[in-house]
Amino acid sequence: MIFEEAIAVSHPIVSDSEWLAARRTLLEEEKAFQKKRDELAARRRDLPWRRVDKDYRFRGESGTCSLGDLFGDSSQLIVYHFMFHPDWEEGCKSCSFWADNYDRSVVHLRARDTSLVAVSRAPLEKLIAYRRRLGWTFPWYSSSDSDFNYDFNVSFTPEQLARKEGSYNYREGAVFGEEMPGISVFIKDQDAVYHTYSTYSRGLDPFNATYQLLDIVPKGRDEDSLKYSMEWLRRNDEYGD
Question: What value does the mean pLDDT take over residues 113-136?
């Protein structure tokens, strides 16, 4: 109770009518923001496409496959570039946070002609063991035998880092590690595969439902006092009781 009172003292407390008036004002801003979001989403879909001619090879649970095979029976594909370096024993905890949000979306996306998969450079055996540990079910593929991660600007060589080369989030030299997160989108027309969209860094933020839910509670993400924004974060099996 003392904790609850301390929070309330630091925030304006108003009557029912005042609260309703403030909420209605904010609602108009929310409506305008949502309209802008809809317009931005349409502009994303209107971007030109580029054909993917390179024969990327991936290792999956059914063997070696092509980029076109990742679509399954769908004509649209979302690839989550999951940070998992071949030498790491665990996947990135931030990517794991995002993956917790994606896992149960797979079946719903498939109903709308869209497949969602994760791709990482780590060996398939590590990926599957880590997926089992965290209770996920989405398809996960290893790109260790191809340039896929490098070509889509989510993996970088030690030499690139030393020379401060490489492009991340469409900015040259803005690379902070050998592995970085991202999402890429593709569409398949018969045997042709086209790259339609990629986003990185804070562009991934809208695709994390947990963060969107935290944004509506009074404390928000509550990360300002931390050493870095996700210092609080744990993998889903690492939180204490």
Answer: 98
Helix, strand, or coil (residue 225): coil
CA distance 113 to 130: 28
User: Rounded to whole angstroms, how far apart are CA atoms 125 and 121?
Assistant: 11
Residue 73 to residue 113: CA distance in whole angstroms: 8
Closest C-alpha to 175, from 142, 204, 144, 153: 153
DSSP 8-state assignment for residue 231? T
Q: Is the pLDDT of residue 142 over 70?
A: yes
What is the rounded average pLDDT of the residues 82-88?
98
- Quote the strand ranges of 143-213, DSSP E: 167-168, 171-172, 182-189, 192-200
Please, what is the average pLDDT of the chain? Answer: 94
- Measured CA to CA, the distance from residue 21 to residue 44 in angstroms comes to 35
The secondary structure of residue 179, as a DSSP letter, is B
Tens-digit pLDDT profile for residues 175-216: 889 999 999 999 999 989 999 999 999 999 999 999 999 999
Q: Is 182 helix (H, G, I), strand (E, B) or coil?
A: strand
- The 3-state secondary structure of 24-65 reads HHHHHHHHHHHHHHHHHHHHHHCCCCEECCCCCEEEECCEEE
240 pLDDT band, cuts 50/70/90, is: confident
Distances from the Cα of 136 to the Cαs of 28, 63, 104, 131, in angstroms? Answer: 39, 20, 9, 5
* Structure tokens given for 145: 């035998």
- The pLDDT, as a whole number, for residue 174 is 79
